[in-house]
Amino acid sequence: MSAMKNSLTARIAFFCCLAAAAGCFISCKRRTEHKNFTVFRYNEMGDVTSLDPASARSFENEVIDNQIYNGLIQLDDSLKIRPCIAKKWEISPDGKIYTFHLRQDVFFHDDSIFPGGKGRKVTASDFVHSFFRLFDARVSDATTLLANVDRVYPGTYQGFYAPNDSTFIIYMKRAYAPFMNILTMKYFSVIPIEAVDRYGLDFGEHPVGTGPFQLKRWERGDRMILVRNEHYFEKDKQGTPLPYIDGVVITFIKDAETSFLQFLDDKMDLVSGILAINPREVLTPDGQLKDEFKKKMYMQRTPFIKTDYLGFMVDSSRKGTDKNPLCNKTLRQAINYAINRENIVRYLRNNVGIPANGGFVPPFLPGSRNNKVQGYSYNPDKARQLLAAAGYPNGNNLPVLVLRVSSEWEQLALAVQSQLQQVGIKVNVLREQPAILAECVASGQCYFFKKSWVGDYPDGENFLSLFCTKNFSPQGVNYFRYSDPAFDELYDKAIGESNDSIRYADYRKLDEMVMEAAPVVPLYYDEVIRLVSNKVSGLPVNSLNMLDLRYVKKAGGEQGE
Predict the structure, then answer these.
(1) Do 174 and 498 touch, CB atoms closer than 8 A?
(2) Is residue 257 one of the residues assigned to a domain?
(3) Which residue from 33, 118, 414, 542 lies 20 to 30 Å from 528 (Cα-Cα)?
(4) Residues 67, 132: contact at Cβ < 8 Å?
(5) pLDDT class of 173 with cuts at 50, 70, 90
(6) Do 437 and 482 share a domain, yes or no?
(7) End of a domain among 156, 174, 204?
(8) Percentage above 70 pLDDT, the chain
(9) pTM greater than 0.70
(10) Do residues 395 and 481 both lie within one domain?
(11) Residue pLDDT, tens place only, 98-127
């Protein structure tokens, strides 16, 4: 590991060369001793908009934030809560006081905001400032996640308190069972107040954290370079400092085919997601890696906490919805029975994914494995019966439905169009730009749309919250504008329940209520699928699909001088 401890000057010189040479390792004009660096490379087809953890709403932002920041606690690969900056904690018997005891060996990245450019030690007051900042809707996407914090608790700073440098306390209005899982999200990372004071709303361009890597260069739309944090506090079981690799290079190639060819040409170490891997070329019909590619790469595959679905806007109280036939529950149930989810997974996804014949909550979340929900299976005869019961026998008098999708889902939408046509339901597919579709859905102007929900934390509440009346879009994530007082009452009870068995049983009842009301058509529960270069080892995979590069090793190296 001595190579990892070499001078920072040599490392920075190397990465300057990397950026200037568009990813090729060429020597700088200023000569230093020759070094052998290990760099992990991957492409991100989505847009990274900010590296402020308060703006970690998008998956693309969150993945990079995971390399730069740490929070109080973290999830392991089995999605169990583990210590991070907090080495231990207690929760009061009434579930309303969370006390965290912090490590004393965690330092912020070296940065010019600190005297002499040397990162200072993290204290509990840093968490007070970092969490308080999340109440500010100008910078934070996490304001609703803090709704249960008791902001008027005496003697606290908006519900947060640091009695000393190593103790951080959160006071809650009520017991909230999912809260520990919520605290593992990147929103709740610690940042230095000095950086916020200097950069203000531009902090997302100048991130300073405590994580295993720190930002060296960000050329928007082109590439991003992260370098190893020489003072990172975590070590492996043998006591070796993490991370093992020297840096990360992220490119932003939008075209999936170009990105995949770069991977095949050894210019990348990872491609992730079925939309990025060209499944027909590299996968067998049953979703396994073809033999001819195994000398070059290996595949990682695990259930993903993600449900892909068709959504309906079902709020019949809004102006103009008298012309929306999808406010008819029986019609929505007919559509659910008319969809052949097995064929969609088999023929459009090379068997990557699990047909969603259960509820909206993925069946592999804690508590869901033994509380399976009965959803909808393919039954065209039942669909026709319900279509008639809805007042549209054989589809007669039913207006043509408009299914709005973004471009990457056009083939899936055409398959849905064909399946619904077979039972008498006519559909037009309207392809939209992603930003336009998102606005249309959030504003309630889309009556029938394709979306997906990726779990931010491993608790069924994260999925069920989409159906709470208080979460109506555009302020919240209830894009369907589904409302049921009985659902809201049971949901409120469930999230305050400390007994896991009782809470999980309530989750099942809530999911069953959603399926009966049918504001959605769950299509499939996705799977994490990655292709990784055989040069790479130690890359973990988990159901959140969160990229963790702390333990990655890469054979060989790249010369810089």
Answers:
(1) no
(2) yes
(3) 414
(4) no
(5) very high
(6) yes
(7) 204
(8) 92
(9) yes
(10) yes
(11) 999 999 999 999 999 999 999 999 999 999
**What six digits make up the tokens of 525?**
């529960």
Cβ atoms of residues 494 and 506 within 8 Å = yes
* Token output for 212: 């295993």
Q: Pick the residue with more confidence: 430 or 560? A: 430
Same domain, 153 and 242: no
Total structural domains within the chain: 3
C-alpha dist (Å) from residue 190 to 144, 225, 234, 497: 19, 21, 16, 29
Q: Which amino acid, 405? A: V
166 or 21, greater pLDDT: 166
Neighbouring residues of 265: CB distance < 8 A, sequence distance ≥ 6: none
Nearest CA-CA partner of 277 in 292, 294, 299: 299
pLDDT at res. 159: 97
Residues 170, 317 share a domain: no
- Tell whether 436 and 456 lie within a shared domain: yes
Q: Where are the alpha helices (DSSP H) in 25-123?
A: 59-68
Could you tell me if 37 and 225 are in contact, meaning their C-beta atoms sit under 8 angstroms apart?
Answer: no
Looking at the structure, tell me whether residues 242 and 196 fall in a common domain: no
Residue 11 lies in domain: 1-51+61-66+212-269+535-561
Find all residues with CB under 8 Å of 483, minimum gap 6, and list them.
315, 469, 472
189, 133 Cβ separation under 8 angstroms: no
By DSSP bridging, strand 247-251 and strand 39-43 are parallel
Residue 44 lies inside a defined structural domain of this protein: yes
Domain CATH for 84? 3.90.76.10
CATH of the domain at 9: 3.40.190.10
Cβ contacts of 453 within 8 Å, gap of 6 or more = 306, 307, 309, 360, 463, 466, 477
Residue 53 has pLDDT above 90, yes or no: yes
- Do 400 and 471 have their domain in common? yes
Give residue 199's identity as a one-letter amino acid code. Y
Q: Same structural domain for residues 91 and 43?
A: no
Asked whether residue 277 is domain-assigned, the answer is no
Three-state DSSP class for residue 487: helix
Where residue 395 falls (left for φ over 0; alpha for ψ -120 to 50; beta otherwise) is left
- Flag whether 290 is in a domain: no
Terminal CA-CA length for the chain: 19
The beta strands (E) that lie in 58-191 are given as 73-75, 81-83, 86-91, 97-102, 160-164, 167-171
The CATH number of whichever domain residue 330 belongs to comes to 3.10.105.10
Alpha carbon 119 to its chain's center: 29
